[in-house]
Here is the input.
Amino acid sequence: MQITASSRNAFLNRLLTSLAAILAVSAIFGLKAHEFEQHAAAEQLKAEKVAAAGLKAGS
Here is the structure.
């Protein structure tokens, strides 16, 4: 079966559109993961400061 130029172009168009969608979703998930990691690091730092203040107050 011979593939026509219009079929090939339609296939490539769908392929590129799908690839762009996958990259966009991956980028969004990557940014959200980075945001969650920053939030967790800030919470950890806050907990360490509270614990240090509690030890200092208890001494």
